[in-house]
């Protein structure tokens, strides 16, 4: 399977939750209660999942799940999309609880059934599969096995309107999950874990093999989900606290048990799509100026520096690493929120959420890795970002992490300084100049705005640009006020030997005080 094909399949998996969304409705039915809890019976909780993960880590990984009926395994995309959960069969809606749970049917790409349990009064019981839970549309399957199981699930909540149950979070395919804040539409995805991302032959996709969802009370302000991860290299126990809000928050706790040494493991991985943007216009045969779910990687280092790295659709696979100790945050951002920059009425790229990861506790030494994979269209998730610890996990260890992911609508408020709003690149020469640009040269233009930059527009001489390059030389810079953004437009001309690669960096300062985040961008001289 080629890289592009594989990531096309990943993209379908992460998008299926949105594409399969059933009509909005109020659903009241709930699973039968397993009965009242006896006084001495312990309540099911995260420790039970940790125990399960530790136990199965001592045995071999079950690589080959029981096969699905051929009629389900051979479904194409459109036929699978025609299978819809019946909203009137929703789970968790008893006793006036605000959350509803809908199930995903096995089939198409989702051939490995998972177990979904409901915890009522502290007691866990599996949600039984029944074909009566689904509307199969034009599909005709005949009799299906009673123990078929589910491919995943999603939770609904009155997120945008107290009268309407909107999709809040979904788990479907490997360890992928996605969630929304108010007035957001699905774009990027999160994953439970990443192993060997970008390695064509060795990348693993551990999967959530079992879930437990607590029955919420009528006044519940959060959903509680536990998950058991399994894969060739490790097992893991996960706890998700989901807080619906204008910017929905998911608190994640995990404990991992390696089966073998893992050379490249990604914690809190995010995956997204970048096809065309203002800084990368190789593909421009489309009426829509930009096409991306995210346009940059934002980082808050352990030392307190804010970094902004615009995303690209590179000509060949690209790996970038940002070394750090105890990072304070990172995320894939959809910073551009202007409809006119996308002109897509149906897909609404300007409404896609950004996911911002904030670690709990010290994560130690490691690096944030960014992988960008070439794509020829917008159907591929071709961008991945995650944290990689320096110490490779070893068999017999128990490893724990905690973090919070927020579905952000406005990342400019995450830090008080100015931010890089726009990035362009062009020929390194003055407009209309007769002489050609110098060999191996390129001009980068960055719009900085926000923070205190507006204060300096009346005295722009107090603001300076601080550029640097890891290779070659910077031959020219300029900085001019930009009243349209209430900020400044910076220009950097860099020159390299042909075939050489550099990492550019720039920020604005006044005196000894940095006024903006640090913009960074890789470039290779053709």
From TrEMBL:
Keyword Signal: yes
The organism's place on the tree of life at top rank: Bacteria
Keyword line: Periplasm, Signal
Any GO CC annotation of this UniProt entry: outer membrane-bounded periplasmic space
Protein localization: Periplasm
Protein's UniProt keywords contain Signal: yes
UniProt pathway: Glycan metabolism; osmoregulated periplasmic glucan (OPG) biosynthesis
Residue intervals of the Glucan biosynthesis periplasmic MdoG C-terminal domain: 44-523
GO biological process, one term: beta-glucan biosynthetic process
Coiled coil: none
Signal peptide: 1-27
GO terms of molecular function: carbohydrate binding; catalytic activity
Family indicated by similarity: Belongs to the OpgD/OpgG family.
Official protein name in the record: Glucan biosynthesis protein G
Record lineage: Bacteria, Pseudomonadati, Pseudomonadota, Alphaproteobacteria, Hyphomicrobiales
């Amino acid at each position: 399977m080629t890289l592009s094909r594989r990531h096309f399949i990943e993209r379908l998996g992460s998008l299926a939750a949105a594409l399969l969304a059933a009509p909005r409705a109020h659903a009241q039915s709930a699973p039968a209660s397993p009965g009242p809890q006896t006084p001495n019976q312990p309540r099911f909780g995260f420790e039970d999942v940790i125990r399960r993960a530790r136990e199965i880590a001592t045995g071999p990984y079950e690589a080959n799940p029981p096969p699905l009926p051929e009629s389900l395994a051979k479904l194409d995309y459109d036929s699978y999309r025609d299978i819809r959960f019946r909203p009137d069969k929703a789970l968790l809606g008893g006793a006036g609880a605000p959350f509803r749970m809908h199930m995903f049917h096995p089939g198409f790409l989702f051939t490995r059934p998972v177990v979904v349990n409901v915890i009522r009064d502290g007691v866990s019981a599996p949600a039984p599969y029944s074909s009566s839970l689904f509307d199969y549309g034009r599909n005709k399957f005949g009799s299906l096995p009673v123990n078929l199981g589910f491919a995943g699930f999603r939770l609904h909540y009155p997120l945008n309107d107290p009268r309407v149950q909107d999709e809040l979070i979904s788990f479907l395919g490997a360890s992928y999950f996605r969630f929304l804040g108010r007035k957001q539409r699905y774009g990027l995805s999160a994953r439970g874990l990443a192993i060997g991302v970008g390695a064509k032959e060795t990348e693993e996709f551990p999967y959530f093999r079992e879930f437990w969802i607590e029955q919420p009370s009528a006044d519940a302000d959060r959903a509680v989900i536990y998950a058991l991860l399994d894969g060739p290299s490790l097992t893991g126990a996960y706890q998700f606290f989901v807080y619906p809000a204008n910017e929905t928050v998911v608190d994640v706790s995990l404990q991992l048990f390696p089966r073998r040494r893992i050379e490249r493991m990604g914690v809190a991985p995010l995956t997204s799509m970048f096809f065309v943007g203002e800084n990368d216009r190789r593909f421009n045969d489309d009426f829509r100026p930009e096409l991306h779910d995210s346009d940059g990687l934002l980082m808050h280092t352990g030392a307190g520096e804010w970094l902004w790295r615009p995303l690209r659709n590179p000509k060949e696979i690209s790996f970038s690493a940002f070394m750090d100790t105890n990072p304070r945050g990172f995320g894939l951002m959809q910073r551009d929120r202007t409809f006119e920059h996308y002109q897509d009425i149906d897909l609404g790229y300007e409404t896609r959420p950004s996911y911002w990861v904030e670690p709990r506790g010290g994560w130690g030494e490691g690096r944030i890795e960014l992988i960008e994979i070439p794509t020829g269209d917008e159907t591929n998730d071709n961008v991945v970002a995650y944290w990689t610890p320096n110490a490779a996990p070893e068999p017999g260890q128990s490893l724990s992490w905690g973090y919070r992911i927020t579905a952000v609508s406005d990342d400019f408020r995450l830090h008080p300084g100015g931010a890089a709003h726009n990035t362009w690149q062009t020929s390194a020469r003055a407009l209309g100049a007769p002489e050609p640009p110098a060999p191996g040269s390129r001009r980068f233009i960055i719009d900085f705005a926000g923070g205190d930059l507006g204060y300096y527009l009346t005295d722009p001489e107090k603001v300076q640009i601080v550029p640097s390059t890891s290779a070659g030389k910077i031959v020219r810079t300029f900085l001019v006020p930009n009243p349209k953004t209430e900020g400044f437009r910076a220009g950097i001309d860099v020159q390299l030997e042909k075939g050489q690669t550099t990492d550019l960096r720039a920020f604005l300062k006044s005196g000894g005080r940095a006024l903006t985040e640090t913009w960074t961008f890789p470039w290779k001289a053709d």
